[in-house]
Amino acid sequence: MLKYFEMPMKPSAINVFLMFKLPAAYFTGVRVKSISEESCTTSVRHRWINQNPFKSMFWAVQGMAAELSTGALVMSVIKDSGKPISMLVANNKASFSKKATGRITFSCNDGLKIRDAMERAIETGEGQTCRMHSTGRNKEGIIVSEFDFEWTVKLKNS
After folding, report:
1. What domains appear along the chain, each with residue ranges and CATH number?
2. Closest by alpha carbon to 54, among 94, 107, 106, 96?
3. Tens digit of pLDDT for each residue in 9-18?
């Protein structure tokens, strides 16, 4: 059982991970800005490499930044557990309310939710699901997109 929270993964370590394991996210400018027990913030700036024909950020780039804000929390809790745990996005949903231009910041505040799901997975040995929400805002603080990811976590067969 996870009774305490170790130091979360550092943004710089996650960003290096992106470069080698998720190069599409890295080269389009997706970066982790901060991570704690409860939340993770990522950002990406609209530029030529991640644009769509409508002069705004391509929806999939927003999705990568939003997914990373949730997935980094999942990875951090797995690391803390010291257990072999698999993670997978089983489902996702997105809504877009404004053109994404400039710097877009995605925030997820569901770190404690995934921690609870991970504890249940370890205690029961059964896979668990956890819905995590990420909100994308422009520099004025206006919501441009919102994403919901359904993460599944399960102990790997040793």
Report:
1. 11-155 (3.10.129.10)
2. 96
3. 789 888 888 8
